[in-house]
Amino acid sequence: MRTGIGQRSPMEGALGDPSTVHRNARRLGLLLLAVHLALVLWSAFRPVSSAWMADTNLTPFATVRSEVSAGTAHAYLELLRGLLLLAPLGLLLPLAGGRLYASTLTSFLRTVFAAVLIATGLELLMSTLTSHLLDVDDVLLAAVGVALTHLAVVPAARAALRRRERNHEGGNGPRATPSAFEIAHLTP
Description:
disordered C terminus; 63% helix; mainly alpha; single chain
């Protein structure tokens, strides 16, 4: 929201108007988020045949240590599965928010917190509805996967989209200071 030539409203801080939401990006993000979560739920609730199951783990990184100490390919694949299961949420949650001008730290914390909540809910559902036993490492690995995905993709993608928006507007995007020409014509 502009108040005059080259001037910004008080609500539009250094990062642009925080209330601006790109509706098409939000729709796409919500659709992809729903599809991803449906696939995660489908894969989580499939029956799995197993000769034995590990006990419930409430000690952080105990399962990770045991998998690494086993050193088998299956153990590493299980760790990779834990990292990648919810990793797309690192991109899909900010996309579903639709904000182009969002603080990187706030977006990161909000995304990781939401992913921890989703992973915890999924773990609780799996432990009550299937024969899967509760493992806190699944939640921690999911949070790490989401955090890595967010850090690798979202800040660079937002910067590229902001640059594209400025170029699309002909270089007349939001500026912190007006040009000398604008100052000369705005002063009485």
